[in-house]
Amino acid sequence: MSHALIWFRRDLRLDDNPALEAALRAGHAPIPVYIHAPDEEAPWAPGAATNAWLHRSLQALDADLRARGSRLIVRRGDSLSELEKLIAETRAEALHWNRLYEPASIARDTRIKQGLKSRGLTVESHNAALLVEPWTVQTGSGDPYRVFTPFWKNARTRLVAAAPPTAPARLPEPPVLLAGLGIEDLKLEPAPPEPRWDAGFWQHWQPGEAGAREMLDAFLDGAAHGYKEQRNYPDRIATSKLSPHLHFGEISPRQVVARVLGQVWPAAVQGDIDHFLSELGWREFSHHLLFHLPHTAQENLNPKFSEFRWAKPDPAHLAAWQRGRTGVPIVDAGMRELWHTGWMHNRVRMVVASFLTKNLRYHWKHGADWFWDTLVDADLANNTQGWQWTAGTGADAAPYFRIFSPIAQAQKFDPAGKYIRRWLPELATLPESALAAPWEQPDLVRRLAPGYPSRPIVDLKASREAALAAYSGPKSKPPPER
């Protein structure tokens, strides 16, 4: 039987894996391969939290392959060189992979496809990560969308309820003498003498395809009901938490949509389902923007902000934000949740981003870089779009005068203070009336929470006024809808 290499990247699953399906359909025996080449993704090589998740996700994929009679061949080095070696060692006739959409990956994959095709190898790439390819959704004039609503109105019509294919129960065994590294040889996890800063992650997450399926099941049975409103409250289990599983391709958006559309929902829940699907739409929109405007991972999308007066970061203030020591409880709770779990509730992401870009008036890239290193769902498209949206510099962005009040956000979306108390245990004994703005009751804080900052690192009112004054220069507005 002829062989085909299946080059796994961020498609770490066997169900609904178009590259695997294509090889089997062509009659090839698939050889699953993972090549560790983080430098090829520069300047956005995976961060530390991403690598910690990747270690466990690769282990889960290898276990799933072994349960079917196959195994994952792990290599490290230049991707093209390692693929050429594998082709020579296995006499493979074809190479299949699922597409990535980041600028560096597109350039690398294009070069590899052209080089290997010129030597007579069958090389095919497939869509495993998106509901719609970025180049297939266009405005009436043939341009990419820059506003979400018309983009999603167009893309939403393409969703299908048909269940995607599942993996076969058995897979052929790769050649016995085909050598590879152990996953542990990639040194993706923190190792002594480095502290196990990721230990808290695994109380909340199960990387791998099985963990992704369980997370989707739990969401559809529970938080999907009431999702539209409840998703705003960080103290509740009210979101899908599928983002890291989607990022690593442990589940596909097609699988999620098929489950959602294939289920009969009460009329009262339909608004929740539509809103959840629109959140998947934002993920698609982010990839659409990055594909068509790749410079936005580093630069403001809106050129009116090219001369904006960002403040020079104070290293002590930036560190206080990173470590959850700003003295603003809802901000600090979010940053502590991120550090402990590798994830942060979306409502709180907007609050901490607004604090950094508006109250501190630091360039959004300082926040994007920190999130990139600490999030287990550190997706370049989503991370870029999220930060530019809050900063007001991106497509479909929040208007420049929108500055999240961390006090109002805490009072509205964490009214009982459960979220703040969970992640800031030093404030656990404060009454609810003091949790949103403890500096307003200094005597109480000195007595009950002496270890917490006595006041915020920046005056919220004064910094808001300074931000409004600075932002009123560009007065950046999103382009008109097309």
TrEMBL record:
Domain of life: Bacteria
Enzyme class: lyase
InterPro entries to which the protein is assigned, alphabetical: Crypto/Photolyase_FAD-like_sf (IPR036134), Crypto/Photolyase_N_sf (IPR036155), Cryptochr/Photolyase_FAD-bd (IPR005101), Cryptochrome/DNA_photolyase_1 (IPR002081), DNA_photolyase_1_CS_C (IPR018394), DNA_photolyase_N (IPR006050), Rossmann-like_a/b/a_fold (IPR014729)
PROSITE patterns assigned to the protein according to its UniProt record, in alphabetical order: DNA_PHOTOLYASES_1_1, DNA_PHOTOLYASES_1_2, PHR_CRY_ALPHA_BETA
Cofactor: (6R)-5,10-methylene-5,6,7,8-tetrahydrofolate; FAD
Domain Photolyase/cryptochrome alpha/beta: 2-131
Reaction catalysed by this enzyme: cyclobutadipyrimidine (in DNA) = 2 pyrimidine residues (in DNA)
Binding site for FAD: Y227, T239, S240, K241, L242, S243, F276, D377, A378, D379
One GO term of the biological process aspect: response to light stimulus
EC number: 4.1.99.3
Function as written in the Swiss-Prot or TrEMBL entry: Involved in repair of UV radiation-induced DNA damage. Catalyzes the light-dependent monomerization (300-600 nm) of cyclobutyl pyrimidine dimers (in cis-syn configuration), which are formed between adjacent bases on the same DNA strand upon exposure to ultraviolet radiation.
PANTHER family attached to this UniProt entry: CRYPTOCHROME (PTHR11455), CRYPTOCHROME CIRCADIAN CLOCK 5 ISOFORM X1 (PTHR11455:SF9)
Protein name in UniProt: Deoxyribodipyrimidine photo-lyase
Natural source organism: Arenimonas terrae
